[in-house]
From TrEMBL:
Pfam families: SBP_bac_1. Belongs to the bacterial solute-binding protein 1 family. Gene3D superfamilies: Periplasmic binding protein-like II (3.40.190.10). Signal peptide: none annotated. It comes from Myceligenerans indicum. Residues 1-23 are annotated as: Disordered. Keywords: Signal, Transport. SUPFAM superfamilies: Periplasmic binding protein-like II. InterPro entries: SBP. This is Extracellular solute-binding protein. It comes from the Bacteria. Residues 1-19 have a biased composition (Low complexity).
Length: 415
């Protein structure tokens, strides 16, 4: 009786023959990036492979995600499989919220074929916990109706072209809201600077005040002041709105913004955001942000990891769901809508018949991540970079801003 009651309490029932348990698996996906086709495939395939069990997808919001997950994953009603932002993963792996993926499981799920940077983001103390789900590299969007000529070949040419458009008084050569730190990182990396790196004594050393960091910040401020009409305290939200109003030459953004730009001018729901419709979006083009010496720049790789909750009461069923989500079939669906799949071997499934898909794949090849430390989530939560880049947009001294960024980052990471 005790065993039977325990099984019922967990929401899973053991088979009479001692075989696999059955029950309900709850999968938390964040936002709307996972297409309906993939969601349907996951649910249908899981329930076919695990007779008597059901899978429920519960969509979460990116806003307040870390706090909600922290509460849920520590509680008695934790979900079974969760999606988490790649920069947030270490906050959960380091605190024991995720179930370890064994070496054999790792190989079965893709092993060396999985996106290496995202594998690293989900590792903790030499073990695997959160594996890659999808990536979305950044590209530079433009409408040939507004921008003529070939895309710039180097980062310096990109800066000059954006400033030249702005000087002509037609519109922003590029759009840079002051709080947008994601687009700042390529300028730091391409000029030889860095965010933060481990020192010999194990502490973290920030690199915005290095010569490369200063050079990058100088270019960033130049663009903010001499190429952009975006608000100095603006955020990287609803960027398609000014783009669709014809106010922007170059728009550097995640590749998935193409769907917002190409959305109807009249939203289908009251809370929807208008897109361009056939105006500007109809002939949308993109290119990979060029590097300092040509080729694709090192850009920030947005995207997600996927993990099994440590407190999942049906780990075998949760692993079954994880296998489906990392299967070639499921990941090909992800790739089919333009996201970078979790497996390197499937990158060719990203549609590249247009410039947007090609730019996304090219940019993803050299994409980088934020420092692999659980305390990086605190840097983001305290809006360190958002606040400091707003100062740059307001014309504050570059070297002083760099020193303040380094001081705050080191204080948090080494605290």
């Amino acid at each position: 009786m005790t065993l039977a009651m325990g099984a019922c309490a967990s929401g899973a029932d053991a088979a009479d023959d001692g075989g696999p348990s059955t029950g309900e698996v709850r999968v938390w996906l964040v936002g709307t990036d996972t297409p309906d086709e993939a969601r349907d495939y996951l649910k249908t395939t899981f329930e076919e492979q695990n007779e008597g069990s059901t899978l429920v997808i519960e969509e979460q919001s990116w806003d307040g995600l870390v706090d909600k997950y922290t509460t849920a994953l520590a509680g008695s009603d934790a979900p079974d499989v969760v999606e988490v932002g790649n920069t947030q993963a270490s906050a959960f792996t380091s605190n024991g919220y995720f179930s370890e993926i064994t070496a054999d499981e790792f190989e079965e799920l893709g092993g060396s074929d999985l996106l290496p940077g995202f594998v690293e983001a989900g590792d903790w103390e030499g073990a695997h916990y959160a594996l890659p789900y999808y990536a979305g590299s950044r590209a530079v969007f433009y409408s040939p109706q507004l921008v003529d000529g070939e895309p710039p070949a180097t980062l310096d040419e990109y800066v000059d072209a954006a400033k030249d458009m702005y000087k002509k008084g037609k519109f922003s050569g590029m759009w840079w809201p002051g709080q947008d730190w994601y687009n700042a990182l390529p300028f730091i990396w391409e000029n030889g600077g860095y965010i933060a790196e481990p020192a010999d004594d194990g502490s973290w050393e920030a690199g915005f005040s290095t010569p490369g960091g200063i050079a990058g910040l100088t270019q960033i401020q130049d663009l903010m002041l001499n190429a952009s009409n975006a608000p100095a305290d603006g955020q990287e939200t609803d960027l398609q709105v000014p783009f669709c109003e014809g106010k922007i030459g170059y728009l550097s953004a995640p590749t998935w913004i193409q769907w917002s730009i190409n959305a109807p001018e009249e939203p289908e729901s009251d809370d929807g955001v208008p897109g361009c419709g056939s105006t500007y979006g109809g002939d949308l083009e993109a290119f990979a942000l060029p590097g300092k010496d040509g080729g694709a720049a090192q850009v920030f790789a947005g995207g997600s990891n996927i993990a099994i909750a440590k407190k999942s009461e049906q780990r075998d069923l949760a692993y079954s769901a994880l296998k489906i989500m990392l299967s070639d079939e499921y990941q090909s669906i992800i790739a089919g809508i333009g996201l970078i799949p979790a497996k390197v071997s499937l990158s060719g499934d990203v549609p590249q018949e247009n410039s947007i898909g090609a730019a996304g794949v090219e940019a993803a090849a050299g994409a980088k991540l934020t420092p692999a430390t659980p305390k990086w989530a605190d840097v983001e939560a305290q809006n360190v970079l958002q606040t400091q880049f707003t100062r740059l947009a307001n014309g504050d001294d570059v070297e002083q801003v760099a020193a303040d960024i380094d001081s705050q980052i080191e204080s948090i990471l080494n605290g």
